[in-house]
Amino acid sequence: MKIIDPHLHLFDLSQGEYSWLKPECPPFWPDKSLVAKNFSEHDLRLNESLKLTGFVHIEAGFNNQQPWREIAWLENTCKLPFRSVAMLDITLPNVEFLSQLNKLSSYKSVVGIRYILDENALAILSHKNCATNLVTLASYKLSFDLQMPLSNNAAVDKLLAVLTLASELKVCINHAGWPPLYSLKDNEKSNEKDNIQTQQWLQNLKRLASLDNIYIKCSGFEMIEKNYSISWAHNIIHQCINTFGISRVMLASNFPLNLFQTSYQNTWLSYLSLTKNSLSNITNISNISNTESADTSFLYNNEQFTQLCFSNAQRFYQF
Questions:
Q1: Residue 291: what pLDDT?
Q2: Could you tell me which residues are beta bridge partners of residue 4?
Q3: pLDDT computed for residue 180 by the predictor
Q4: Domain 2-316: which topology?
Q5: Residue ranges of the chain with pLDDT lower than 70?
Q6: Following DSSP, what letter does each residue of the chain receive, concatenated?
Q7: Is the CA virtual torsion 115, 9, 175, 276 positive or negative?
């Protein structure tokens, strides 16, 4: 099974700043030390039944003032085929945005940018420079990795308004749009707040899926709940496929953040359990931490799984 991992991060603490990985800076995770270390492509280990044929490196705070330095480091370091999604502030004055965009687009691996919106999504999308900059980005045939909670109705309203202006922009939603955490334990009922947010997430998922230039990546489950259940993650993946169609969904690792829950190998094995046929050569699926039996109605065949783990990423990220 060939894999292109469309969402991972590599670190070299001697080269980059990575302020978010420092113990004195947020986020204040008690186990941050697990990921606050150097990671290279050599740490992306899979067994012989899986083959990593490429990856997409998502900006990781190497240097937010000079984001091209991260790209230069990657292109001087990595040997596997890869594409880069660089950091670029979409609220910059238009002239400065264009200057940085020109510098970034001179690197052969750059296919898009990310500027994390998250809890500031409404304010950033409402900024006077945002729409113009995203229109400019689209004119360069570069994509935008969108990271924000889709349960935020006001922010999604503003996003759709911006995308009306930047109608040619290719967008990929990161981490399934931060689906709300609901029942993780058998027979546990989700609370009213979770139910409301889940309905908002589902509704906005459908609104965004109506635009055929928007894709979605399923990953980052450990950022919502470090001890998430595999069956819950499969429910989210199935919902994304049901909403966007299988040709616009990608599965990704979010390495090395996935190490909060399990290994790189086991992250992909957990995805493999979505399909019957893919299990034929896997002998250690039972070793995945927190394993639960997935709902068998969610099974996909090998051709569909290839789309989810290879060809959709190959197409969207211009391999």
A1: 34
A2: 54
A3: 87
A4: TIM Barrel (3.20.20)
A5: 182-193, 275-299
A6: -EEEEEEE--B-TTT---GGGSTTSSS--TTGGGTSS-B-GGG----TT-EEEEEEEE--SS-SSSTHHHHHHHHHH--S-EEEEEE--TTS-HHHHHHHHHHHHTSTTEEEEE---GGGHHHHHTSTTHHHHHHHHHHTT-EEEE-S-TT-HHHHHHHHHHHHHSTT--EEEGGGG-PPP---STTPPPPHHHHHHHHHHHHHHHHHHTSTTEEEEE--HHHH-TT--HHHHHHHHHHHHHHH-GGGEEE---BTGGGGTS-HHHHHHHHHTT-SGGGGG-S-GGGSTT--PPPGGG---HHHHHIIIIIHHHHHTT-
A7: positive
pLDDT single digits (tens) 282-291: 222 223 333 3
Residue 276 pLDDT: 40
**Structure-token match 């609901």, residue found:** 182
Tokens of 248: 């616009």
Domains of the chain: which residue ranges? 2-316
Backbone conformation region of residue 176, classed left if phi is above 0, alpha if psi is from -120 to 50, else beta:
left
Both tokens assigned to 127 = 């900024």
pLDDT in tens, 103-149: 999 999 999 999 999 999 999 999 999 999 999 999 999 999 999 99
Instruction: Tell me the residue type at 51.
Output: K
